[in-house]
Amino acid sequence: MTEPSELVEQQGVGIPDALQRLWTPHRMAYIKGENKPDDDASEGCPFCKVVEMDDEAGLIIARGESVYALLNLYPYNPGHLMVVPYRHVALYPDLTVAETLELAEFTQRAMTVARDVSAPHGFNIGMNQGVIAGAGIAAHLHQHVVPRWGGDANFMPVIGHTKVLPQLLAETRNLLAEAWRKT
């Protein structure tokens, strides 16, 4: 490997650095915002579309009366799921009392199921309200439930800029869905 002090400027492509690159062109759809709704309209909303799919194809773990749980297609960690209202609503205060209650119940159950399946040491729970707050799909409210383990943010994402997911999403979905039915 070339030492950083030995790197020279390349014509037209920038200055090389000591970081290795793992190219992930499939993520360009996410970066470009493809399939993200631009406004309050539900046309084109992936959270509105996914409920029309069968559970396995849509990575849906469980369905309730007013909310459902599904795996995040772009997970931060293994088992990263979301609880989403069926109704296309952008902001938490706009939920009905019934939607708020079921969203909270599904969040609790998601934590219980994740503990049973993969024994995380902790969780990050939250929602980003609005694009400026980091919401990838701001037009349709969704709450993240992210299992965490000691050392899960080790050198790979910090130095290698790479996430390691030990299981395919379909396999994770099947384990969580089966455990959900048993709780």
Automatic annotation (TrEMBL):
A motif (Histidine triad motif) lies at residues 140-144. Gene3D superfamilies: HIT-like. Pfam families: HIT. InterPro entries: AP-4-A_phosphorylase, FHIT, HIT-like, HIT-like_sf. Residues 46-155 form the HIT domain. GO terms for molecular function: nucleotide binding; nucleotidyltransferase activity. Keywords: Nucleotide-binding, Nucleotidyltransferase, Transferase. The active site is at H142 (tele-amp-histidine intermediate). CDD domains: FHIT. PROSITE patterns: HIT_2. Substrate binds at N72, H144. This is ATP adenylyltransferase. It comes from Actinocrispum wychmicini.
